[in-house]
Amino acid sequence: MNKILELSNLKKYYATQKAVDDISFSIEKGSIFGLLGPNGAGKTTLLRMITGIFYPDSGDIRFDGKTFDPENDIIKIGYMPEERGLYKKMKIGEQALYLAQLKGLSRSEAMTKIKFWFKRLEMETWWNKKVEDLSKGMSQKLQFVTTVLHEPKLIILDEPFSGLDPVNANLIKDEIYGLAQRGSTIIFSTHRMEQVEEICDHIVLVNLGKKILDGTVANIKQQFKENKFAIQLGEVPANLTAASFDIADQKANRLTVKIKEGYRSNDVLQHLLQQNLTIEAFHEVLPSLNEIFINLVEGTRATSRAFQPVNP
Amino acid sequence: MNKTLLIIQREYLTRVKNKRFVLTTILMPLLIVALIAGTTFLSIKGKDERKIAVIDQNGFFKGNIKSTKALAFEFPADVDTSNYLQKGYSDIILIPKFDATGGKMNYLIRSKKRISITTESAISERINAAIEDNMLQTAGIDKAQLDSIHMQSQYAELKAVEENGEGVKESNAGLSYGIGFGSGMLIYITMFIYGAMVMRGVMEEKTNRIAEVMVSSVKPFQLMAGKIIGIGAVGLTQFLMWIILIIGLTTAAQAFVPHDVMEQVKTLQQANGQMPGGGMAQAGDAAQQIYKMQHTFSTANWPVIILCFIFYFLGGYLFYAALFAAVGSVVNEDPQDAQSLMLPITMPIIFSFIIMTNAVQDPSTPMAVWASIIPFSSPMVMMARIAYGIPGTVPYWQLGLSMLSLIGGFLLTTWLSAKIYRTGILMYGKKVSWKEMFKWAFRKN
Does the ipTM surpass 0.85? Predict the structure, then answer.
């Protein structure tokens, strides 16, 4: 079995809304998976079902090839919620130890691992600091450590980069890659599409409790491509029209053209060559996930759906 | 280590290691002692000191009425109602001619500052005693005889005993009152302090989103139970430390008592109140006091009282702590929420306290009996009654019923609260109504 998680027809309805309305997808082991969606889409509810905090109203969850058993499987899962969840007055070392022991590690094992991670993320000197004395970025790093300490097979990170400066964000990003390489699977939930494009292999987009997209980043971009190409010319003639394309945008000598129905990129190149124009650059422009996201989600009133009635 | 045990350990250690805990544990007994000493001192000092001029038409009160520093009777010749204040007297008493055969005599007291109830009764007591003395003297008993009779009659003391199986056991109403009230009060205070601690802890975990992290490692019930038990252990520790402190202080205090006084006390104890040679009057005043105190204390059945106290303290705490946890889990950022939700829980506690203050004076009224069995009020009220003796005032079946219903009670509140807690701690933003809480509590899950 190379799937770490398989969700089939999950449903969770609340009195005022269908939080999760028949969602199914699966996640490969060792992948970095992106769970995307606007606020109120049902992401958090979905994640809470995966971590065993909530029970679905109907549907199945299979974890590592077997039926999901919340009591025993949560040791193999690490969950970092969106907001910092730490005891303010507790010392950092103590807190990490406490959380590690609750995940089933023995005291000595936990201490070794904590020391290892603290050193790795440059947190060694903070051992006796209280959580309330930390800056946002520091507490984020701490929360990350407590999430991955017990070497879980499935790591769920909800907006892990919020509040981190570029240096620390990079540190965490490298750790995520490293963990994936060592066999852990990562579910990454965020609004930040640029990060998703950068890091994730596979994504799922949910909105209004339903799955809207499911595929690898590359495939989805292909799916939504608009046949746009970026062309950089040596000089741009005053009037550049052709049957094969429309000019969508122009900045100095950089053009964005949309290739018309029935034509292909070679036709555009041919036209430009015929015009004897110097071609400096020519490449496809795929839509950003941000654009795809907005196009799919805009106008669907996701955030106000808490007040929409549920039809039985 | 078992997860719930881990939680208990953390909740316990973080609170016990706290400087504030150590400070309050040590200071509290000292504060209470200071409070008691202070109020006693003030009540003595603040006594209505009166210098009373007496105009006596009969001529026999002078020399026959008890005059003390606090309540002084003087018989000046040239004082009347118009000048007694200037002469330095606080009041003036006018006693008309008294006819022994003619029934009650009315006398008048005039003052600038109105006399208090205690002073009034003290004055009339002394006047009556003086009249009585006078009548006895007229009947033929001479003064010296009268004086020695007075002295001896002061040594009749009431000794109360109650049925205790085969024989009788000495009891002391004053002590029972003190123990009953004291333990009821202590349970009242600790329930509030530790119940509130539980609520605050739950609220912290909710607003800091710790609950979300914890719930991905442990079941909500484990978190709630661990917290309640851990904090209960803190309360127990504090209570035990107080006992040790008090025992330590009293033992240390005994070391300050002079050796010969202690010897007298020991002799009194051995002879059960009688000094060799007859009459407790032989022993010094201090020794008598100490002996009386120790003797009174020994009339109470301490082991039973302490065991029952621990049971009711824990039972009452567990009963209400679960409710406090449920309230804490439902509150959001707004502290006003907490106040209004706490009300239905604090009301029964306060009500029980009031019933307790009545029960401690009369432990056998139907209300006292029922209140000592119902789990809402039994911790405080039953302790008030137990001080009066088991099985005399509190028959075994009442005690048994009360204990069983308290255990059943806290199991029930824990079960219901767990349902509310597991939903409440993850629900942010929405203000939860009582109706919703009920739905969660009774929903089949």
Answer: no
